[in-house]
Here is the input.
Amino acid sequence: MPELHLIPADERHFLRNVDWNLFSLFLEIVRSGGISAAARHLNRQQPTVSAGLKRLEDHLGVELCRRTSQGIELTPAGRAFLPLCEAMMAAARAAPHEVAKAANLVEGVINIRTISSIVSPEFDEALVAFHRLHPGVEIHLEVTPWRSVVKSLRNGDAEVGIACDSAPSAGLCYEPLMRETQQLYCSRTHPLFGTTVSLPSVLADEPFVMTGQDEPEELERFRRRYGLGRRMGGFAENLHEVKRLIELGVGIGFMPTCVAETLDNAHLLWPLLSDDLLVSYHVYLITRDRSARDVPTELFLSEILSRIRRRAP
Here is the structure.
């Protein structure tokens, strides 16, 4: 006869009476760094959030955190409870996605907005793996300037975005995907071909090929500091067309080094700036808050995030 394992009465009482939404509330308080910040993010009143935390502590019979001048400080019980809470919430979020996978019911559309000419093995590998595992999901990939990528996510017109963003938007989640470095290039026919410039301001009178809305803010500040781009020779949003205009001698212009090095006939471009002057910035994988993600989005994020984190040292 199999051995019976009875649940103690106090555990049965906890399981029967606890509000599982309080686990999510506790995580938000910890991630936000305080009750007031959590209330703002959840669009709730601060007393409501405080009362929810108190109810959870009453259910558990311990104090989970203390208020400090900087926000909150977890007690030993709170530190022990946090990873358990994270694991439970992760399992709850994963449940519908895992069931859909097992039943081969994953269908629909995933809308991805990205800046031009991304060079990311992790992104490419994730797309291949996702399509192989879930052929019923259509992948819509649209290239657009980085500000439009962020706007599409905020408006709910896209599920996943890849863009630079020097001032991350509230309500969106950012994961560093890669670091891009910008170099200033000229054509083979340019008088400066073969030389290196250590003072960018000497190029202030050169005609420039501009990239408009797709120019990262870090690069725009660099240009303005040295007076670059006052004379416009050409304009293009797509980096392949920027390269074309630079090669044709329309003007000098900035491009990400990883893009310039992978394009055909890259030897027709000459890097003008010394390495110590180059501008770099993060390109992010951007998504909406977890509550706004559907099954295809969660499954795609699982593919790409696992690759990003395997790459990290």
Residues 1-8 have pLDDT under 50 and may be disordered. DSSP finds eleven helices and eleven strands in the chain. The CA atoms of residues 30 and 72 lie 8 Å apart. The longest strand covers residues 172-187.
